[in-house]
Backbone:
């Protein structure tokens, strides 16, 4: 782990309040694995403001990419950084996804929750470490909330199923609708699979229930407000079978069977 | 070369810059992001007899100039601390003294934890002022007589340098300082967080699950300086000062007001490099002002 003084390479609006930020951070890019996160000091905020955590969308060639949505004061201020700006990026942090899969890898993302799943899909496709096909199930309120679908498709061999609340892309409904169809066909075929998920809490809970209910492994990435990002402050707590666990150290990716939902 | 060594009530610190309890875990989590060669001591996260789950979520809220938290002292118990945490710390972080921060639900609880520490750590800091747990908080830190009783009990239980971390929210710090002095404390830690509250006006609910919390960060610094100043005038006990140290200027204010050493807390979350920046800035200041030792800064405030 380092607190790397990085340089912004590019920062683009990709529509509907979503942005893609690329920074030059060689040590981080080399070390980070899918599902891990980085803790970013936002230059436009006051000097005492807390850092903001972001999962990594991609890491290659000494650069990392973050895909994020403007959801509050921190992400709004982060929007002001320009290519060439210096940025303190601490990481890699937390426990990410396993980079292997016993059977089909079902990646389930809600909104910008697809960010760490792209990094995972890329690694799984490149390594062949999934014993079955890699499939993405992406959901959002509208078509505009489905991000980087073209990037998943460009990986080759990643089957993509979409769902939107308004039916503007894919099936009209929840991301668990196409997921359930897949689970039924996998069960009928007697095929093994694991589920990897990132997105809003209600989606994660629904996905975790399906993993535990089918006896499959589920890997659930929790999104929590954080203070330190390194395990010292105990602010980003998720209840688990082991008690109050820290999302930043024991997570953000937890085994579905370990999670305790309120 | 400025002499940066200080003695905090028997605790030999290689530099006057410590890490404050609750903001530095058990001392090793920031390895890779912190220059430990500039760190004078690590004050570990609060320890009691048994593990403690802490408060419900949400536990924090960012506010202008700082942070309101109600973590509630989640932490490992003393047995786990001694068996795993301390050996791991000693292996990972050579040369930086380790201070155990302890708390309890009873006088006996404090004394038991202190006794169990033996000589495994380099000093003990008693937390009698956490605003976020009922026992271990106001019960012990808001009445000089009760404070004297618990400090005396811990004093009997340990020969380690003993620091007492006091609450800022008292009409005068002096009776508490005197109570610690009379009960055999070796040093004082000032200040703990200031009781605080944040309200979500749209939902009309408290932001924190615990309803109230403790304010830390930049905004509390001048209040902390005043309390350190008051305490220093009332006692010869050395003071470890904390509260809104974001740079060397903040630390030097504490030293001039009478602190022997300072602790960096909330600032570390934003900038782990702050510990090195504070150390470097103190050394530069000493060189510029002609002080051979940081010890010469202590209480070197000129008045009227």
Residues:
């Amino acid at each position: 782990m380092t607190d790397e003084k990085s340089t912004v390479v590019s920062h683009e609006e990709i529509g509907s309040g979503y942005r893609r930020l690329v920074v030059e951070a060689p040590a981080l890019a080399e070390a980070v694995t899918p599902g891990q996160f980085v803790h970013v000091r936002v230059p436009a905020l006051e000097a005492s403001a807390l850092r903001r955590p972001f999962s990594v969308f991609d890491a290659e060639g000494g650069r990392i990419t973050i895909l994020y949505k403007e959801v509050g004061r921190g992400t709004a201020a982060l929007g002001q950084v320009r290519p060439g700006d210096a940025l303190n990026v601490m990481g890699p942090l937390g426990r990410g996804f396993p980079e292997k899969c016993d059977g089909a890898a079902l990646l389930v993302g809600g909104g910008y929750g697809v960010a760490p799943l792209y990094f995972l899909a890329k690694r799984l496709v490149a390594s062949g470490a999934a014993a079955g096909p890699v499939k993405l199930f992406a959901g959002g309120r509208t078509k505009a909330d489905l991000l980087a679908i073209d990037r998943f498709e460009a990986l080759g061999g990643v089957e993509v199923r979409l769902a939107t609340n308004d039916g503007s892309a894919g099936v009209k409904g929840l991301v668990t609708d196409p997921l359930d169809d897949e689970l039924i066909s996998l069960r009928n075929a007697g095929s093994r699979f694991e589920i990897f998920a990132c997105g809003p809490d209600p989606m994660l809970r629904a996905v975790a229930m399906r993993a535990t209910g089918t006896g499959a492994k589920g890997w659930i990435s929790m999104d929590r407000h954080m203070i330190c990002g390194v395990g010292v402050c105990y602010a980003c707590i998720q209840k688990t079978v082991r008690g109050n666990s820290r999302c930043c150290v024991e997570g953000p990716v937890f085994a579905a069977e370990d999670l305790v939902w309120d | 070369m400025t002499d940066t060594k200080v003695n905090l009530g028997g605790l030999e610190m290689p530099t006057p810059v410590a890490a404050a309890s609750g903001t530095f875990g058990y001392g090793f989590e920031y390895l890779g992001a912190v220059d430990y060669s500039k760190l004078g001591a690590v004050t570990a996260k609060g320890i009691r007899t048994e593990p403690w789950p802490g408060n419900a979520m949400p536990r924090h809220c960012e506010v202008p100039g700082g942070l309101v938290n109600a973590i509630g002292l989640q932490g490992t118990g003393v047995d786990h601390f001694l068996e795993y945490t301390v050996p791991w710390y000693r292996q990972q972080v050579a040369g930086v003294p380790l201070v155990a921060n302890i708390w309890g639900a009873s006088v006996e609880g404090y004394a038991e934890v202190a006794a169990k520490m033996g000589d495994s750590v380099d000093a003990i800091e008693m937390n009698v002022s956490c605003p976020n747990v009922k026992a271990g908080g106001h019960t012990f830190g808001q009445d000089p007589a009760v404070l004297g009783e618990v400090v005396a009990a811990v004093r009997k239980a340990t020969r380690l340098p003993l620091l007492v971390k006091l609450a800022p929210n008292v009409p005068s710090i002096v009776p508490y300082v005197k109570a610690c002095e009379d009960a055999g404390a070796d040093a004082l830690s000032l200040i703990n967080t200031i009781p605080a509250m944040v309200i979500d006006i749209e939902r009309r609910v408290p932001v924190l699950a615990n309803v109230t919390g403790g304010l830390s960060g930049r905004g509390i610094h001048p209040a902390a300086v005043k309390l350190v100043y008051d305490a220093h005038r009332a006692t010869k006990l050395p003071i470890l000062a904390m509260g809104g140290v974001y740079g060397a200027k903040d630390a030097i204010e504490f030293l001039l007001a009478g602190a022997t050493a300072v602790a960096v807390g909330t600032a570390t979350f934003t900038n782990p490099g702050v510990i090195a920046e504070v150390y470097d800035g103190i050394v530069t200041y000493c060189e510029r002002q002609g002080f051979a030792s940081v010890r010469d800064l202590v209480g070197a405030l000129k008045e009227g």
